């Protein structure tokens, strides 16, 4: 009598169903992880422009607003606006406001000037960051023109007067949190944005 090969027992139907369900679950978890990683990578790239947009819209952190025209009304309430100027390390400039403060009415368009002198014997380039204090007033402080909108390039020893055209929005008067506000400080810091020309020429 020919011996028969033992047959592997077939798992019960319920076991097969559990195995298939486990496989589908593993695949689903892997897909979900892939989607999550993709979303995180996308969020990382979008974080900076979204944060910048959020600050500009809300005035968060004292970020000022950009306006294209003057407001419709000028109120009698007055605010003192102070001006601050700073230079980051590595930028050989003298940077200062031509007046330290000015009193303005809400809605009044005002032009003030900052003076910059390049103290180096080479061309230098800088860009300005800015904010206002108290930070809660950022949503009400609007600039129509500002040297901070563009990169500034100075020739050796060049001195230049640069304008800021701004207003404090009349809507501030309707904010009860600003009832005791008397002073806003507008602050700028210039940072170097390019390596010295001699360094670029030498390839460093």
UniProtKB/TrEMBL annotation:
Pfam families associated with the record: CtaG_Cox11
Keywords: Cell inner membrane, Cell membrane, Copper, Membrane, Signal-anchor, Transmembrane, Transmembrane helix
Cytoplasmic compartment segments: 1-24
Transmembrane segments: 27-48
Periplasmic side: 48-204
InterPro entries linked: CtaG/Cox11_dom_sf, Cyt_c_oxidase_assmbl_CtaG
SUPFAM superfamilies: Ctag/Cox11
Membrane topology label: Single-pass type II membrane protein
Protein name: Cytochrome c oxidase assembly protein CtaG
Source organism of this protein record: Rhodoplanes azumiensis
Record lineage: Bacteria, Pseudomonadati, Pseudomonadota, Alphaproteobacteria, Hyphomicrobiales
């Amino acid at each position: 009598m020919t011996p028969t090969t033992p047959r592997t027992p077939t798992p019960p139907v319920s076991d097969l169903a559990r195995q298939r369900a486990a496989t589908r679950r593993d695949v689903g978890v892997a897909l979900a992880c892939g989607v999550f990683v993709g979303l995180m990578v996308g969020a990382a790239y979008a974080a900076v422009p979204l944060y910048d947009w959020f600050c500009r819209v809300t005035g968060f952190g004292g970020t000022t607003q950009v306006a294209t025209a003057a407001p419709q009304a000028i109120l009698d309430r007055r605010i003192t606006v102070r001006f601050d100027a700073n230079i980051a390390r590595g930028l050989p400039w003298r940077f200062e406001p031509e007046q330290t403060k000015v009193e303005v009415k809400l809605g009044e368009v005002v032009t003030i000037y900052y003076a910059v002198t390049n103290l180096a014997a080479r061309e230098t380039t800088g860009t300005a960051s800015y904010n206002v204090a108290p930070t809660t007033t950022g949503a009400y402080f609007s600039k129509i023109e500002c040297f901070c909108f563009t990169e500034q390039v100075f020739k050796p020893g060049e001195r230049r007067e640069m304008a800021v055209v701004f207003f404090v929005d009349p809507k501030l008067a309707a904010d009860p949190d600003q009832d005791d506000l008397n002073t806003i400080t507008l602050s700028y810091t210039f940072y170097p944005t390019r390596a010295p020309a001699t360094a670029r020429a030498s390839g460093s």
